[in-house]
Specification:
Low-confidence stretches: none
Distance between the termini: 23 Å
Structural class: alpha+beta
Strand content: 25-35%
Number of helices: 2
Shape: globular
Length: 76
């Protein structure tokens, strides 16, 4: 099982890049199957590029640092 604190620590590394563009990311949940649920906030929330930010940015970095992460999805 993935340690939620470890995921939060990696998100802290990503956060400055998002904040530089007026956005941010919040960790909602880490599921048993390796799915990480996050919410993009601020400028990222309504940005048309948010899905790309999620998959090419947040998901890529989380997977590279925590191999147990299978995917990153937006909060419903």
């Amino acid at each position: 099982m993935i340690d939620k604190e470890e995921v939060a620590a990696v998100l802290e590394l990503i956060r400055p890049s998002l904040q530089a563009d007026g956005g941010d990311v919040q960790l909602i949940e880490v599921q048993d199957d390796g799915t990480v649920v996050v919410e993009l906030v601020g400028a990222c929330k309504g940005c048309p590029m948010s899905q790309m930010t999620l998959s090419n940015g947040v998901e890529r970095i989380l997977k590279s640092r925590i191999p147990e992460v299978t995917k990153v999805v937006p909060a419903p």
